[in-house]
Amino acid sequence: MAKKILVLSGKGGVGKSTVCACLADGLKDNSKSVLLVDADVGFRSLDLIMRVGDSVVYNWLDVISGNCEAAAAPVIKENEVALLSAPPAFSDEITAESFGELLGKYDIDYDYILIDAPAGSGELHKILAGSVDMLLLVVTPDPICVRSAEVAIDRALEVKPSLETAMIINRFNKLEVMAGRQMKLDDVIDGTHTRLLGVIPESDSIRLIPSGEEPTKYAASAFERTAKRLLGESVKFRIKDFY
């Protein structure tokens, strides 16, 4: 049975979707099968980040509506990570029950299902949170993002208080912290009250993935370590690099 993880943030622009795609690659590199579900209804982006936009025919609402079989909807990236694209608009057919049934159709085919939630916290987040095993918060180390992230994860936990929670700090820059322009890691953890899973360094190579850029070894290794922690391995944070 797949472990289902809702990836969320309080505000937009934190690089959540890119983190989803890179974390999926890290899990795949550890011999895990992964399905990415783009849940940003009306504003899909994962197909562009994964560079499979021209291959998308169906979205996950087509599966819920019966317009296609479950097996026909995912698009497979070259590295074998699969993607269920987001529908163009919300529908009354999207309910906690129908979304849970949708994920159930892929339970035996994948080890992990990562669901890329839209930014913020609304009714759709409640629908999504009811069908997952874990909440994974993505934040950048700035006060506005941290405050909104705390609200987002608290509201998701109202739906299912037993959910496991963890956090990835994205776009971390040691020099910015030393200059007082970014929050310290401990302050981000204290502000969100969430266990730290990984820290991803600021890198243009990650931001430019939709344009065909590959992550640098430095950035890719951060995702690799984060994926291993998600798999339950004991991977220490390296103090000298602040991540």
Walk me through this protein's architecture.
- This protein is α/β, with parallel strands linked by helices.
- The protein has one domain (8-230): Rossmann fold (3-Layer(aba) Sandwich).
- It is built from 10 helices and 8 strands.
- The chain has helices spanning 16-29, 46-49, 60-65, 96-104, 123-129, 143-159, 174-178, 185-192, 204-207, 217-230, and strands at residues 3-8, 34-38, 75-76, 82-84, 112-116, 134-139, 164-172, 196-201.
- Strands 3-4-2-5-1-6-7-8 form an 8-stranded mixed β-sheet, with helices on both faces.
- Strand 3 (75-76) and strand 4 form a beta hairpin.
- Helix 1 packs across helix 10 and helix 4 packs across helix 5 (123-129).
- The chain starts with a strand and ends in a 13-residue tail after the last helix.
